[in-house]
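Schema walkthrough. Field components (list of strings):
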Amino acid sequence: MYKTPDGKEIFVLDGHTHFWDGSPENQANVHGKQFIDCFYAYHANLSPKEELWEKARFEKPTEDDVYRDLFVDGPDDMAIIQSTYLSDFYKTGFSEIGRSHSMAARHPERFIINGTFDPRDGEKALEYIHWMKEEFDITGVKMYTAEWNGDSKGWALNDPAAYRCFELCDKLGIRNIHVHKGPTILPLSRDAFDVADVDYAATDFQNLNWIVEHCGLPRLDDFCWIATQETNVFGGLAVALPFIHTRPRYFAEVLAELLFWIGEDKILFGSDYAIWTPKWLVERFWNFQLPGDIAEERGVQLTDAVKEKILGLNAARLYGIDVEAKMKQLGARPVAMAAE
Amino acid sequence: MLRRFIREGLELEIWEVLERVTDPELDEPVTEMGFVERVAVADACRVEVDFRLPTYWCSPNFAFLMSIGIRREIMALPWVRAARVTLLDHCLGEKVNEAVNGGRDFAEVFAAHCDGADLSDVAGTFLAKAFDRRQEAVILGLRAAGRDDAAIAAMTLGDLDRAGLSGAEAARQRPRYRALLLERGLARAPDDPAFPRWDGGAIGAAELPAHLARLRATRINMEFNGALCRGLAAARYKEVEIGPEGPTLVDFIVGRVPPREAAEGRS
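Field assembly_structure (string):
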C-alpha cells in the first residue's frame, strides 16, 4: 500500500508486470538478444539515475527481486503478472505462466497471473486456453499482436482465429484481455501501431474487458476515440507513466487527454516491471499535479480521488477484488525478506 | 583517386541533401535524429550511406521509406553515379537493403510485402500528420504572440510570412509548414488562406479550438515517438553526452563508457 504524506493508505494494484527470463542462456537467437536489449534501452532511457539496474539483473530478475521491488521497497499491494512467450526468440518462453506461478507461491494472495495464447496456433491455442483455465484458473490474458510465429510477423485481434479464442475466453469466464500493441512488421502497407482491431473486437465481445496497454501510444488519438465509443475498453498507463520523470509536462498532456476522453474510471496504473519499478512511479504520481493551463484547456482534474482510482480501484473492479477485505488479508500476511 | 579535400566537400554535400529526408512518423530529418551513421564517397563518384534506427524493431515500412528517400536524394545530385544505402542492425535490414539497392522496381518489391497494397498510402497518412503538427506549432506561436482566433483564421500566406511568432518551435516550423503548403498546392499566392485543412477545406474562427484539439492529439503521438526514439537511440548506441566531470557511475552501469563503439556487434 502507498501511504500518502498525510497518512492516508492507498490500495495499489499494479496492472502490468512481468517475471521474465531474457538471459543469454534462454535466448534462442539474435532476436531474443535484441528484444531484451530493447527493453533495457527503455529502462535506461526513462528511469531516474538512482533507479538504474545493471544489465545482468535486468535480464533475469530473481524471485526475491520481485517481492522486494514490488511489495517491500515498492508500494504494490497486488500485481498482475502478464505472460508473454515469444517462443521464436526464447527457449523456454520469455515470461511463462508456470514459472510465474512458482515464483508467486510464497504469497499467492498478492498476484493475479494472466495467461496468453497465440491464435495462429489454431486448435492448439484453444486447448491451451482450456489447460490454463483448469491448471491455473486464469481470469485474464495478455495478447501481444506483434509476436512472430514462423513466417507470420504479427496478427490482428479481429482475425477469425482470434475470434474463436475470444469466444472460448468468454465461455470460460476469462474476462480481462490485456492488449499490447508492439510494432507490427508486415504487411508494410499497414500502420504498424494500428489500434482499429480493438474497436472490432470490443464491439463483438461486449462481455470482455479490453485493456490496451500504454493506452495505444503512439496512436493515442485513435485509442481515445475507440475507448470513448466502447464502454468495455480501458487504458493502461505502462510506458506513458515514466515520462512523469523525463518530461512531466508531456505526461500531463497525455493524462489530460485520457481524462477528457475516456474518463477517470477507465485508466489503470501499471509499472511495466521490471522495465521500471513501482516505488518511484507511484510516489511521483501521487505528488503530481496537472499544470493549470493544461487542466483548464481540457476541463479535467487530477484529484486524490482520481489518483486512487487509477492506482488500484479501477483494476480491482475489473478483477472483482473487494479492496477492504483484501487490505485486511494482506495486512495479516506481510511480505518478509530473508536477511541479505 | 580523389583528393581528400574534394572528397570531403562532396561528402558534405551529401549530408546537406540528407537533411531533406525525414522520418515519416516523427517528421524530423534523419540527420537531426542521428540516424545517419556513415557517408562515404568512393572513386568514380560512388556514394555509400549507412543508417540505423533506434531499435532493431522499428517499423520496417518507415525504414523502407527512409531508405528510398536517402537513395533518391543522393541520386538527384548530378555528379553521383551510383549509390548504396545500408540499413544496419534491423530485424528486416537485409530485405530493406536488397530491395532498395537491388535495382528492381520499388512498387514490385513492396507489393510482395504489402499484400498487393501500395506503400504510398502509409506515406500519405503520415504526411498529413506532419502537416498537422507543423500547423499547430505555427498557430500556437501566433496565439502566444497575441493574435486571437479570428485574426488567425483570417490570415493569408502573405500575412503569415510577415507575422511575428513567439517561441523557437513556431519559428522552426514556419518554413517547414510553408514548404508543405506549397508542395501540396494548399496555398500558392500571397492572398491564399494560410491555414487550410489537409483536405483543402477552410477553418472558421469558431472551429479553431476544436481543430487545435485534434492537432494536439497528433502532436502528442509524434512527441511520444520522438522522445522515445531519441532516448532509445542514445541508449542503444551509447552516444549520451558524458558531463564535464567525466563519466559517472551511471555512465558505467548503462554502458556509456567508452562513449562509442561504432563497429561493435556488426558483421
